[in-house]
Amino acid sequence: MTARMPDTPLGQPSLQAVRLSKSFLSGHVRVQVLQGLSIALYPGELSLISGPSGCGKSTLLSLLSGLQHPDEGQAMALGEDLGAMGARALEHFRLRHTGFVFQGFNLFPALTALEQVQLPLGYMGLKNAESLHRAERALDEVDMSHRSHMRPAELSGGERQRVAIARAMAKEPQLLFADEPTSALDAESGQRVIDILHRAARAHGTTVLCVSHDPRLVRHADRVLGMEDGAIRNDWRPNTVNQE
Ligand SMILES: Nc1ncnc2c1ncn2[C@@H]1O[C@H](COP(=O)(O)OP(=O)(O)OP(=O)(O)O)[C@@H](O)[C@H]1O
Ligand SMILES: [Mg+2]
User: Fold this and answer.
1) 138 falls in which pLDDT band (50, 70, 90)?
2) Atom 7 of ligand 1, nearest CA residue
3) In 51-120, at which residue ranges do the beta strands (DSSP E only) sit?
4) Which atom belonging to ligand 1 lies closest to the Cα atom of 68?
5) Measured between alpha carbons, how far is 83 from 92 in angstroms, rounded to an integer?
6) Average pLDDT in the chain
7) In angstroms, rounded to a whole number, what is the distance separating the alpha carbons of residues 230 and 21?
8) Alpha-carbon gap, residue 209 to 227, rounded angstroms
9) How many other β-carbons are positioned within 10 Å of the β-carbon of residue 11?
């Protein structure tokens, strides 16, 4: 009998790289970063990209989120070809459907945790009462309600990153991108951050794509994509290996 693996996702991919190629000009030399990379990612999953420095992980993230455009191939998000969208449509798409978490937190020094989370919701056009409600709920999800009136300087690294995640999650994006979100954190804070991202995928059906060097995070991911020299070299599901 050929049973489907229990964790294999059903349905349409929410993010898709279709033969993506990308190069950069460095002086007179053209550096080929991605060469015909294809991958399909699904809702409700945390996919972790790992691989050596310079192999193209951040580049792949920025192509799949529409921040940069490929030289060749297509980046599809929620069934739409990002390259076929006009600049305004793309900006609107990114605002509505994508959230980002970075290594450096990118918080505003003068704003409290609550204000940081509320700010982008205002850009999305939410009314004050609704944005306040969503911001409080997101801070609660990352267990930061008790710090909501504190500014970044008063928070630890792990707490800052939880605020940054709350800010991304409060938008209720279908796509959540995280580039090395745990690399500035100690092991325990890092695991907590990855657990929160995993919970976001499970609880809200979010597609979470996370780049990390940290091998300790592998067991927290649904799927691990090993990248090398601009290509996906392996693709596996850490929590189904023993069930096969
Ligand atoms: N805007 C750019 N201009 C020129 N070269 C670039 C640009 N962005 C990336 N590169 C080059 O592309 C290659 C891949 O970069 P990328 O940032 O995707 O790697 P990475 O896998 O994320 O590495 P790291 O783990 O160090 O963050 C590197 O050689 C980098 O120098
Ligand atoms: Mg990078």
Assistant:
1) very high
2) 24
3) 72-77, 80-81, 98-102
4) 1
5) 14
6) 91
7) 9
8) 13
9) 8
31 Cα: distance to centroid of ligand 1 (angstroms): 10
pTM summary value: 0.91
How many residues can be counted in the chain? 244
Spatial separation of the C-alpha atoms in residues 133 and 111, rounded to whole Å = 17
The atom number, within ligand 1, closest to the CA of 26 reads: 4
Ligand 1 pocket check for 59: Cβ under 6 Å: yes
Distance between CA atoms of residues 49 and 42, nearest Å: 14
Domains of the chain: 43-62+86-243 (3.40.50.300)
Q: For residue 36, name the pLDDT band (cuts at 50, 70, 90).
A: very high
Q: Is the CB of 108 under 6 A from ligand 1?
A: no
Q: Is 66 in the pocket of ligand 1 (CB under 6 A)?
A: no
Q: Please tell me the residue having the least CA distance from ligand 1 atom 16.
A: 56
Task: Please check the confidence at residue 22 and state whether its pLDDT lies above 50.
Answer: yes
